[in-house]
Structures are given as C-alpha cells and as structure tokens.
Design goal:
Blueprint: E1 3-7, E2 19-20, E3 27-31, E4 40-46, E5 52-57, E6 61-69, E7 74-83, E8 102-109, E9 118-126, E10 132-140, E11 148-155, E12 166-173, E13 175-176, E14 181-184, E15 192-194, E16 199-200, E17 205-211, E18 237-243, E19 251-257, E20 264-272, H1 273-278, H2 288-300, E21 313-315, E22 322-325, E23 337-340
Length: about 350
C-alpha cells in the first residue's frame, strides 16, 4: 500500500490576538512507492457548528478521523458523512488543476468545542489505488455569538516608543471577540489582525494596540487579567499586536469584520492632508485593493458618503494625533470624525 503524508502546520498563535498570516498550503513530507496521481485535499470549510466540510480531488474513502485538542492533549471522535458536490463548487487548490472526480465529506465532532479553542482535524483516507493520505488540519472553535464593535478613536500613525498606533472600540452588543478581525488594507504583509476568544459586554471599551513594544503586556481576555506597559488603559480591555515594526499608512482603509471573510461591522477611511495634497487636484486611492475594500465598506453600510478618496477623513494627521468619532450620531462618514492633538487623545477612556 502506498502512503502519502499530508501535514498542515498547527500554529499556536491561533490562540492569540495576532495577525493571521501563516501558510495554508499542503506540505508533502514523504511519498513511498511507484508513481501515482496522489489524492489531494483541495478545500475545507468550517461551519458554525464546527462541522468541517472537506473536499478531495479524486475518489476518497475515510479510514480514520478524529479531533485532537492541543491545549489538553485530548482526542475526540468525529463522524464522517458523504456529501454531494455543489453545482457551484470551485477547486481552491491552484496547484491541483481541475480533477475529473471530487469527493466531499462532512466531518462532525461528537463533543462540544469551546469558542476559539484550537483543534486539529486529523485522519487518513484511501483512494481507488489503495494509496493512503494522512492529514492534520488546524481550526478554532467557531464563534457562535460574536460581539459587535464600533470604532470610537484611532491613532493610525506611529510615534516614538512606547507610544504607538491604536484603535479603540465600544462594544455595541455583548458576545465573544474570537475571530473578529481588524483588516489594515494598506498593510500588504500582515493585513488581518484577529482577536482571541474573550467574552465582552455591551458598553465596555476595548483598545487594540498594533505593536508590542514593552515588557509585561498581556491580552486582557478576562476582567481579571491586567496588562502591564505604559500604554495599557486602566478603564479599557487591552489587546496587543505581535509586531514591533509595521508599515506606515498615510492613506488607508480599515475594516472590522466578524471574521477575515465575515460581515463588515465597521470601517474608517482616512488620508493625511499632506498625502492627499501630493495626489493632485483629483486625489484618488493608488491601490486597487484600497479601492475594492472602500467600495465594500460603502456597500455594507459601514461607511457613508462614498468610496472615493475625497470621501475619506482628510486631516493633518500626525503620529501624535488621533481621530475621534462623534458619539451623538450613528452615521459613519468623514464629517463624523474630528482630529485631536496629543494632549487631548483619550485612548481607553469611556466613550
């Protein structure tokens, strides 16, 4: 029997409030025996119930499957039910080409998996030539009741240590932060920053600091955890990005989503006055992705007034100043934001 080993790296950073950026590509560590067209995993989808839909290029039959919980070392049983291939199915693995046959299964845990808990789906499948593919795929427990956040203040540019960029929120609806994503569209290397699992209540203030530049800082995932650091906020829940250096973004679109591909909860479009002046009499976004995401923010209703650059917040923003949202209006557009100098920044104070 020929055996193929397929290993997906399990990233412990899934537990933290870091930026998602690890590879999702398969790694074949060994192929034994003569040449054969290997069976391949081409797509996986985690459902809200933590059921994993898994699609194979080729004809696959499960030999074994289980769920492993790295935090506890426990394993759980998992059922495997065949699925019909949807008419609109597309092969997400660009390296596999278009297969003649696809096989799909719904893999369902038989025990509850907590919100944000990392787990590994691992198992073995066989193809029609009796070759075996072993795999291990990392996931997190689905967030079944995500909190809803509203941006209230943002310092988008870097100052001197230990002052750094931050984005402040008020919790509009109680729930869990797990998987809620801050998408910095202007950051090409690490655009998506994800909150860890943390229950929050309506009315709480949350501050996400993009950089970790001091010792003693901690994600305040519970009310009992108190972060150190001079930028920690006594009246807010603090969360920290994993980087000490990130790109400068003088014109940007920032989106808050229920997940990387989830619904847009809130947004802000901004450009420094100096940068806008550089772009002439009819300033425009200079990046297709910024255009696309600005349009998405408008289409979702999270941003009003248009997706073009002139509809963004245009102000003499510097590294010591913040943009603050008008608390008296629910409409989110350029006119809803004012610029505050360094002495009037209210990071972490109640909205």
């Amino acid at each position: 029997m020929k055996k193929l080993f397929f290993v997906m790296p399990v990233i412990c950073a899934l537990c933290g409030a870091g930026c998602a950026g690890f590879s999702q590509q398969p790694i074949f560590t060994d192929i034994l025996g003569g040449e054969a067209e290997p069976i391949k995993i081409v797509k996986t989808v985690r459902m809200e119930t933590n059921t994993i839909q898994i699609y194979f290029a080729g004809t696959a039959e499960f030999l074994s499957v289980e769920i492993f919980i790295p935090e506890t070392g426990e394993t759980q049983t998992c059922s495997a039910e065949p699925m019909d291939i949807p008419d609109n199915f597309t092969d997400s693995d660009e390296q596999s080409g278009k297969a003649d046959t696809y096989t799909a299964f719904a893999l369902s845990p038989t025990a509850t998996i907590g919100i944000g808990v990392p787990f590994v789906l691992r198992g073995s499948v066989s193809d029609t030539k009796h070759s075996v593919l072993d795999f291990a795929l990392p996931f997190e427990g689905a967030n079944t009741h995500p909190a809803k956040l509203r941006i209230t203040e943002i310092r988008p540019l870097y100052s001197s240590k230990p002052k750094s960029e931050f984005i402040e929120f008020i919790v509009m609806e109680s729930g869990n932060l797990s998987g809620i994503t801050i998408t910095n569209v202007g950051d090409k290397q690490n655009p998506h920053c994800r909150f860890p699992a943390a229950e929050v209540s309506a009315g709480e203030t949350i501050v996400y600091h993009w950089r970790s530049v001091e010792e003693g800082i901690r994600d305040e995932t519970t009310v009992k955890i108190i972060s150190g650091g001079t930028q920690a906020c006594a009246a807010a829940r603090d969360f920290w990005g994993p980087y000490t250096s990130i790109p400068k973004r003088n014109a940007n679109v920032i989106l808050i989503k229920a997940g990387v591909d989830g619904d847009i909860q809130d947004a802000i479009l901004y450009c420094t006055e100096k940068e806008c002046a550089k772009r002439g009499a009819a300033p425009a976004w200079n990046d297709e992705e910024l255009v696309r995401e600005a349009e998405a923010a408008v289409a979702s209703g999270a941003w009003r007034g248009g997706a073009v650059l002139k509809s963004a917040v245009i102000a003499p923003i510097t590294a010591s100043k913040s943009l603050v949202r008008d608390a008296k209006t629910a409409i989110n557009k350029a006119e809803s934001w004012t610029l505050r100098d360094s002495k009037k920044v209210t990071m972490g104070k109640p909205y």
